[in-house]
Design goal:
Strand content: 25-35%
CATH topology: D-amino Acid Aminotransferase, Chain A, domain 1
Order of helices and strands: EHEEEHEEEHEEHEEHE
CATH class: Alpha Beta
CATH superfamily: DNA ligase/mRNA capping enzyme
Distance between the termini: 29 Å
Helix content: 10-25%
Radius of gyration: 16 Å
Length: 209
């Protein structure tokens, strides 16, 4: 089991917390041919691997809200090789954003093979094979201030957390600090009580899910 790497905040992200990190070098994102902006979903970072699944910290322990995730992962894990991981947001329990029209409680955003985060298009193909729904893609193209403004215009930051940007091409996990970044809305966390300590409030699935 391997913990998924940290995603740093963009310098303009208003939701930087005291324990968050800000990306210091935008050279790669600005110079790469194409990036994809995806919606930052307000869930629990979760990894599916050949032996099951775990939250971002492999030793995170039991929580009643994770029962659905374990059952879902049981249907995916047998199809994964030992060097494959599927990473995504687990959205069964409401955190600070409520969802009522999810296509699934697990939305994938990364397919990792041998410590290499696979290209976005290849990732979508693998997700389709496995029956994994992806996080919503907002925009593809160059990474610059104009693109960021365009993506922010697509978001309702009263009801959405923000966005994540990554190259469309593959990259190594060790390069995440310069290849992936996020923008989180101001005052994103709405409660002093961590969601794992509060009563479980389920998010909603769309009717055809």
């Amino acid at each position: 089991m391997k913990k998924y790497g940290r995603t740093f905040h963009l310098p303009t992200s208003p939701g930087v917390g005291s324990d968050d990190k800000i990306i210091q070098d935008l050279t790669y994102l600005q110079g790469t041919d194409e990036v994809v902006f995806t919606e930052k979903m307000d869930g629990e970072n979760t990894t599916i691997f050949a032996g099951g699944c775990h939250a971002r910290s492999p030793d995170s322990g039991y929580h009643a809200s994770r029962d659905w995730m374990k059952a879902f992962a049981a249907g995916i894990s047998p199809s994964l090789s030992g060097d494959e991981r599927i990473v995504g947001e687990y959205l069964f329990a409401k955190h600070s954003v409520a969802y009522d029209d999810l296509p699934s409680y697990f939305l994938g955003f990364a397919w990792i093979v041998d410590n290499e985060v696979q290209g976005w298009d290849e990732t979508l193909g693998r997700f389709e094979e496995l029956g994994v729904k992806p996080v919503p893609a907002l925009q593809r193209g160059r990474f610059d201030d104009v693109a960021i403004r365009s993506v922010l215009d697509l978001l309702d930051l009263e009801n959405q957390e923000g966005f994540v940007v990554r190259p469309v091409s593959s990259f190594f996990e060790n390069d995440m600090a310069t290849h992936v970044a996020k923008y989180v809305r101001e005052g994103h966390v709405q409660s002093d009580t961590h969601w794992t300590k509060a009563e479980i409030v389920k998010n909603g699935l769309r009717r055809d899910s």
